[in-house]
Amino acid sequence: MPAVLSSTLSPVALMRREMAVRQGLVPVELDGLPVAPGHNRMSRDAFLLREPEVAFLYRRSEGVVVARGPGWTPQLEELYLNGSVCAAVASLNGLLPIHASAVVVEGRVVAFTAPAGGGKSTLAAGLAALGLPLFCDDTLVARVEPDGSLLCLPGHKRMKLWPDAVELTGSTPLEQVSADYAKFYVSTAGSAVDGPLPLGALVFLETGAEPALLPLHGGGKIARLSDDHYTRAMFCQANALDGPALFALQARIARAVPMARFVRSLDRGAFARSTGFLAEALCAMMRG
Its domain of life (predicted)? Predict the structure, then answer.
């Protein structure tokens, strides 16, 4: 079961406090074990991430220390803070990070998950252009409620897209993430909601000829929750979840959270049609 830490803070205030960033010295080891550039390490209450250009140290209740080296850029720092660091901080505080981008539909969050490169951000940007505001990009942080439902914390709303996705979604490109990472931050319609919202549905992206939103049931839900993304590994390590405990948590979430498969063609010419189809289907789904 996820750790439940004693705190009088709301989950939003807790993450805001724990993600407070200051510049300083970051060690090259954690718990006496060295961490080479390009690697990270998590302990019971700390997380160390070292990259050639920037390094981060998080300790519970102390916030995040960042050390900026040659090649550092604000965009690169933002990339790690909103990805690996955010997932680690959430996990160490008993919150569940999900590898997903999400929009707001009828006052609830709909999250899209797929392997890296599966089109989560592109789809969310397309839906935002149709009036479904962006709730977060790439990492969704949620609190698991006693009944297994998920309360979603508002995430960062600076979306990153590959150049072809920028053109496809009609987004406005801003700065490039880094010289070695050719995604661009884009201007997207962000949600004005600054508080948590319930997760209305978790949608898994697939490819197919015709757009379809297909409900998942029973064991199919649990199987889809068995994500091997690094966020799941962090959560299990931080909360000491072995195989049976993780399965029990996934089963509890599966019983409480509506889930579906969204099948659509990846042909560029089909994007507008499939995104419009999904926007209508999600609005109908959330209205009941």
Answer: Bacteria
Among 95, 112, 133, the domain boundary falls at 95
pLDDT in tens, 7-48: 578 999 999 999 999 999 999 999 999 999 999 999 999 999
pLDDT value for 188: 64
| Neighbouring C-alpha atoms within 13 Å toward the C-beta of 90 | 29
Quick one: tokens of 30? 């954690």
Beta bridge partners of 21: 64
Q: 141, 5, 140, 142: which is closest to 61 by C-alpha?
A: 5
pTM: 0.92
| 36, 166: one domain | no
Same domain? For 111 and 51 the reply is: no
Is 4 inside a domain boundary? no
Q: How far apart are CA 280 and CA 283, in angstroms?
A: 5
Same domain, 165 and 89: no
Nearest alpha carbon to residue 181 among 159, 161, 164, 157: 161
Q: How many C-beta atoms surround the C-beta of residue 244 within 10 A?
A: 8
Structure tokens, 227: 């994500």
Hey, what amino acid is at 231? T
Strand 134-136 to strand 181-187: parallel, antiparallel, or no bridges (unpaired)? Answer: unpaired
